[in-house]
Structures are given as C-alpha cells and as structure tokens.
Amino acid sequence: xxxxxxxxxxxxxxxxxxxxxxxxxxxxxxxxxxxxxxxxxxxxxxxxxxxxxxxxxxxxxxxxxxxxxxxxxxxxxxxxxxxxxxxxxxxxxxxxxxxxxxxxxxxxxxxxxxxxxxxxxxxxxxxxxxxxxxxxxxxxxxxxxxxxxxxxxxxxxxxxxxxxxxxxxxxxxxxxxxxxxxxxxxxxxxxxxxxxxxxxxxxxxxxxxxxxxxxxxxxxxxxxxxxxxxxxxxxxxxxxxxxxxxxxxxxxxxxxxxxxxxxxxxxxxxxxxxxxxxxxxxxxxxxxxxxxxxxxxxxxxxxxxxxxxxxxxxxxxxxxxxxxxxxxxxxxxxxxxxxxxxxxxxxxxxxxxxxxxxxxxxxxxxxxxxxxxxxxxxxxxxxxxxxxxxxxxxxxxxxxxxxxxxxxxxxxxxxxxxxxxxxxxxxxxxxxxxxxxxxxxxxxxxxxxx
Length: 450
Known about the structure:
The chain is of the alpha/beta class. It folds into three domains: 7-120, Probable tRNA modification gtpase trme, domain 1 (Gyrase A, domain 2, 2-Layer Sandwich); 126-213 and 385-431, tRNA modification GTPase MnmE domain 2 (Four Helix Bundle (Hemerythrin (Met), subunit A)); 217-374, P-loop containing nucleotide triphosphate hydrolases (Rossmann fold, 3-Layer(aba) Sandwich). It is 44% helix and 17% strand. It contains 15 helices and twelve strands. It has helices at 30-37, 88-100, 110-117, 123-134, 138-148, 151-173, 180-186, 189-215, 229-237, 280-295, 311-319, 364-374, 389-406, 412-430, 436-444; strands spanning 7-10, 17-26, 48-53, 59-68, 78-86, 104-105, 217-223, 255-261, 264-270, 298-303, 326-330, 352-355. α6 (151-173) packs antiparallel against α8 (189-215). The protein starts with 6 loop residues before the first strand and ends in a 6-residue tail after the last helix. It is an enzyme of class 3 (hydrolase). Exhibits a very high intrinsic GTPase hydrolysis rate. Involved in the addition of a carboxymethylaminomethyl (cmnm) group at the wobble position (U34) of certain tRNAs, forming tRNA-cmnm(5)s(2)U34.
C-alpha cells in the first residue's frame, strides 16, 4: 500500500483496566512518536518508558511506547502501541492526541485488513483473528489459532497448486490438438484429478467440523404448554434461567442460554408455548418463537408421557419446517412412579426418541450426545481448523466444478474451463481473487482496534 493514512484506535476492550493500549499504523511514524514523547527516539521492538505529552507539553499519561518498523509488524507498516493506564478518560485523551498529530480513527477491522493487503496474512488467516477473539469455547479458540497459523490456508494452497499443475497439462494440449488425448493419458490427467477430488473431500469434511465448532448449533425446545420446556432449559444450563410454574403461558418470550458440550457451543432456546392466545404480549413471544424455529438446527419436541401426543403437539409438529431435524423427548419420567417406561415413538418424522427427567436430571447426558450426532460432530481431532459458511460454499463450488471436469470426457476445452473455475473458488477462500465488496463486508464485522 502506498501513501497510507495513519490510523489509530483503542485496542483494548471498553471499560476500566490496569493497562490500556492505543494502536497506530501508517508510514513513517517516528516523528509522531517523538512528538508524543517529547523528542525521545524509540528503538524498534524495544519498550520505551515515557510520559505521553499534549501539544503544550503537559503529561496526559505515562507508560510504554512500542515501535515496530515496517515491514516487520502486524500490518506491514510502521506500528506504534501506547500502553498507558486503562481508564476510559485517559484512553480517550491519548486517542485524541494521536488524532491531533494527523491520524484518523480506524474503521472496524482496518488493522487486520491492512495486514491482508500487505500480504502479512491471507484472507482465511485474517478471518481467524476475529474468530479467535470471538471464540466461545477452548476448542474453538484452539482451532482458530490453528487457522491463524495457516493450517487451513496450507490445505487450500496445496489444492490450488495441484489444480494449477493439472491445468498446465490440460491447457498445453490445446496447442497440440492432434496429440491431446494421448498426451493427457500419458500424463495420467484423470488420475491426478481423482487425487485432487479426494483431497478436496478431506478438506471439506474438516471444514464442516470446524464450521460446527465456530457456529455452534441452535436448539429449540417446542411442545404444548406445561410439558417441561423451561425445566429442561434450566437443567441443561445448570441454573434457573427460566421461570417454571404449572400455569400455561408462563414463558411469554423466547429465553436463550448457551452451553458447551464437547467443545461445541449450543444455543438452547426455550420457546413460548406455540398456541393461540388473546394476550398481546404472549402473541409477540409466540411470533419470536416461530422465528427461532425457522433458524434452528435441531428441534426438541417435548411430550408429557402421561398425555402422549395431544392435538396441540400435533399442531406444533405440523408447523415445523420439513427439513428441520427433530428429537422426540418424553419428559417427566420421574412422575411415572415405579412403572417401567416403554419408550414409544409417536412422531414419525422424529430422528430419535428419548426419555428424560428434566427435574431429576435423568437422561440429560445422553440427550446432549444425541444433539451432537444430529449436526454430525465427530469430536475435536488434531489438525482441525475453524471454517465459515463462505468457506464451505467455496469448497462445495470447487467440488462441483471438479465433478463437472471429471465428466467432460474428451472435451478438453470444457475440462480446462472447469478446472479454472475450481481454482477461482478455492482462491476466494484465501483472498487471491476476492472482490473488494466482499472484503468490506468481512472486515466490517471485526472490532475497532483489530
């Protein structure tokens, strides 16, 4: 990047803390560092203790100044970090001083965007910075760090290199049409394509696991009033996050709680009983419940085994999206006395049927494992990395193009074109050929100062 404007932002979280950090990035920041320290000259990558001065020479704060000279910095530009006291007022004063000295306020994700544009990170690594910050479990944090270190990108680069090698073989034959088929057979083009497709399938499988860990899963609790949805939410959360009574309509809005099972975030949503009502407030809650159902990954259909599937439950099941995986949950097993429960499946579309007691905690562990199975989680394994939905889409597109290439037969020109399109899809992941508008969307979701 040339003639880059200097940017500045508070890099630490809002609020009070022992230390607060102002980060700056731009070109030739040494004069700025000298002005803010009263003429001191920092050495690259060595901490300088100093007062941080206002324009009239008054001390705004004191602390450490760290100077990273380009290109040996996070962004590839000159970078300065002012580490002062972490009070909000002090941080705002220091930030205002940096703006006085010619910097402008950084946009969300702009530091990481500059690192990407200066080839310090590829796009998949840049996205993993935000994923590491937002990680909701230790497993997600570990996988995000693997992506940041290049685990995902290395797989993609290897695939792209193999596709490029095959493209060179295929497109070279277009210059010698009388020998093209024999040449490709001798070079084992179909065998090379088959190997690439196998490698892509492996990367896609890993990415799908990483997407589960990054996105987590949305689990909605549905059922007739008073079947124990709120009790189950409390039992899964390990706390009284929802009010439990015998009065129908107690839950008048969706109640959400996040738990972690085997490293996977699960967003459990207790829905207001899906029923007709004249209560204005409850109607709003029911509308939100329908929205939560539409966005869910799995639905738990709760049934009171003393009643079975009543008319209200049948209406609720009929209203669920056809492609939504469902588990039939027979709750309140503790109320069945000493009877031996014969778990009977009433709902034909349910993937499984389970008996639990939300009140006593019976069957909850098995339920958690069943939920993981519904989204295909296979457990954290060495080498897994976080992936986003756009990564999965790009991998699926590449897989489709390679399948088309395999079906081209002797149509060499089509074979070459599908290989080219497959390479473009793979390059979108790491950002070699990514549109500017997509970059704007990606980095706008980062926090300011990162």
